[in-house]
Design a protein that fits this description.
The structure holds two protein chains of two kinds.
Chain A (H helix, E strand, L loop, with lengths): L1 E11 L4 E11 L3 E5 L6 H9 L6 E6 L2 E2 L4 H7 L2 E4 L11 H12 L15 H10 L14 H13 L5 E5 L9 H15 L4 E5 L3 H7 L2 E6 L2 E6 L1 H6 L1 H8 L5 H4 L1
Chain B lengths: L29 H18 L3 H27 L7 H13 L7 H22 L5 H21 L9 E2 L5 E2 L2 E2 L3 H24 L1 H11 L1 H6 L4 H27 L1 E2 L6 H14 L6 H16 L6 H15 L3 H19 L1
Antiparallel strand pairs in B: 1-4, 2-3
Classes of the chains: A alpha/beta, B mainly alpha.
Chain lengths: 253, 340
């Protein structure tokens, strides 16, 4: 079954297109990595998949149903959870409160102006355990380290019981000790939730090789290459694209 | 490997619940005892005061409700509005225009709240897609239009205002004597404050604070940002309108100053003085402001200017307001005790 499908997606912000004619099919249970140099259109494409940006052309299908104009809020209720490149969470809240808000949002509890928010339950504890934030449970989220903020966002996504998980640079800015932990976490998630579909954008090739079934290489807003991680790595085009971009030469190596 | 595996959605947290079937592990009594404390403290103060002070406190508790309604937007949701007096004024004028109806005082309050709520829905829908600052400008413009209308529409009597709004009676009790009216108004204020506190602590209230902290993230986790902002705006408008109705009953006169831009600014200043990061901050700020204004600067010609300067200093030095400072002091004291 196809979880997520993009058909000829275009996106421009009034100027030249940032994403042009991108078509992708992502099967349920697969992990796909979208890579490419800065400015390749990865994050914009990601925004389209998450409903944050509306495609100016083409369509987005979620489990076979059109979701092109669904928007972020609707997609969240259809089971798409995402993280941001620079972690976003609710600064004024503790770690636990962030998770409670995420869990309750998916359950549409915001409709209830009368009864108190339910206590943090097993879902919250399990998500905290999964990302290793148990000790920081009652800490104000604004005091977390950079890596822990990324973990908090992943934990928030997990409380939403997602069918599709979109991770925008999940290890960017993490300390060396946090990266293997995050890779372990995401691997474990794939084993325990074989139906979960994951899309990752990443600079870190270690992450891509550890997790992805398939790699999509973007350049200039288009899909340049698509295939198994090894095939994409060994393709001369990959070298050319990355070497053509002085900023990214190191991370492709 | 301990990834979260959920077999079935778990809606009700384990633990004893007072009301069976209600998804709450522990019943929160703050919406009950906090307004009670407010009622007891203000009433004790009221009956210990000379009549001229009683008069000030009578207005101050109504303003306490008004500033709390502003905080629903500023403090809870992160929506800025510079025309909040318009809703207060609409509620007051609604009561004034309908003064000849043989309704009970509580019905009048309901009508005041409803009129302001309808206006808030309309303005909220118009401004639904506006960004923060643009929305604030819209509220300011609407406030100015409402203010100017009182001079253009003959029925609104311009500067003279509308006189003779009755206090009425409840269950045969005449509300005309000041002390009777005190009980009526402070009970109304306490009950509405209790309702607001309940909403503040609910999942809805929690979602509003998520929108305040990061609207993009809130939408990404499935919170309907625009719909909840509209709901908050309507709630704030309704409560401000109710406060306006109460104000009209209290003073028996309504003038254009109730919906002036200056008064909108004063509502913000009162709320900031108490601090909008805490539920009771704006209410405390309103009461403090009324007494500082009357006692210290009541007779000087440049009262507003001096008061403005002092408040500016307060806001710059203590951005979390009086309640914020108090709780920080308490924190320092308890830390001091622990180290000793």
């Amino acid at each position: 079954m196809i979880a997520l499908e993009l058909r000829n997606v275009h996106k421009h912000y009034g100027g030249p297109p940032v994403v042009q004619d991108v078509s992708l099919t992502i099967e349920r249970g697969r992990t796909v990595a979208v890579i490419g140099p800065n400015g390749a259109g990865k994050t914009t494409l990601f925004g389209v998949m998450a409903g944050e940006h509306r495609a100016t052309g083409g369509s987005l299908l979620l489990f076979g149903k059109d979701a092109t104009r669904a928007g972020a809020k609707r997609l969240a209720h259809l089971g798409v959870a995402r993280t941001f490149q620079v972690a976003r969470y609710f600064l004024e809240k503790t770690v636990e409160q962030n998770l409670v808000i995420a869990r309750d949002a998916r359950r549409s509890r915001y409709r209830n102006p009368v009864s108190r928010a339910p206590r943090p339950g097993d879902t919250i504890t399990a998500a905290l355990d999964a990302v290793g934030l148990q000790d920081r449970r009652h800490q104000p989220s604004s005091t977390l380290s950079h890596g822990d903020r990324k973990s908090l966002e992943i934990a928030m996504a997990l409380t939403q019981d997602p069918a599709v998980l979109l991770l925008d640079e999940p290890t960017a800015g993490m300390g060396a000790e946090d990266i293997p932990r995050t890779i372990r976490l995401l691997k474990g998630l794939r084993e325990s939730r074989p139906d979960l579909t994951v899309v990752i954008t990443a600079h870190d090739m270690e992450v891509v090789f550890a997790l992805a079934d398939r790699v999509v290489l973007m350049a200039g807003g288009k899909v340049a290459l698509e295939g198994s991680p090894a095939a994409v790595r060994d393709d001369p085009l990959t070298r050319e694209i990355y070497l053509g971009d002085s900023y990214e030469g190191g991370s492709a190596a | 490997m301990s990834a979260p595996v959920r077999t079935a959605p778990r809606r009700i947290a384990a633990g004893p619940s007072i009301l069976p079937g209600v998804a709450s592990a522990r019943f929160d009594l703050r919406p009950v005892y906090e307004p009670l404390i407010f009622l007891v403290l203000t009433s004790a103060a009221y009956f210990a005061m000379p009549p001229n002070m009683q008069y000030i406190l009578g207005i101050a508790v109504i303003y306490a409700l008004l500033t709390t309604s502003l905080s629903v937007l500023f403090g809870w949701t992160g929506t800025y509005t510079f025309g909040h007096a318009a809703f207060f004024g609409m509620g007051a004028y609604a009561a004034a225009l309908l003064k000849d109806q043989a309704w009970g005082p509580l019905t009048f309050l309901g009508v005041s709240a409803a009129v302001a709520a309808v206006a808030a829905v309309v303005i909220g829908l118009i401004g639904r897609r506006l960004a923060k600052v643009e929305f604030a400008m819209l509220t300011m413009i609407v406030g100015q239009i409402a203010y100017l209308l009182t001079f253009r529409v003959p029925e609104l009597e311009g500067d003279n205002g509308i006189y003779g709004i009755p206090r009425g009676e409840i269950a045969g009790v005449d509300l005309a004597p000041p002390e009777t009216f005190w009980w009526y108004s402070v009970i109304v204020v306490a009950v509405v404050m209790g309702l607001l506190r309940r909403i503040n602590l609910s999942s809805f209230g929690e979602s509003l604070s998520a929108i305040r902290d990061d609207p993009v993230k809130a939408a990404a986790i499935g919170i309907p940002v625009n719909a909840l902002r509209l709901a908050a705006f309507t709630l704030a408008g309704a409560v401000a309108g109710l406060a306006g109705g109460l104000f009209a009953q209290q003073g028996s006169i309504v003038t254009p100053s109730t919906l002036s831009f200056t008064f909108s600014g004063q509502i913000i200043i009162m709320a900031l003085l108490g601090g909008m990061t805490r539920f009771w901050g704006p209410a405390v700020g309103a009461i403090l402001f009324q007494f500082i204004n009357a006692l210290v600067f009541g007779n000087t010609p440049h009262a507003t200017l001096v008061l403005g300067a002092i408040l500016l200093a307060v806001v710059l030095v203590f951005p979390s307001g009086v309640l914020g400072v108090l709780s920080r002091l308490r924190g320092l004291l308890s830390r001091g005790r622990r180290t000793r």
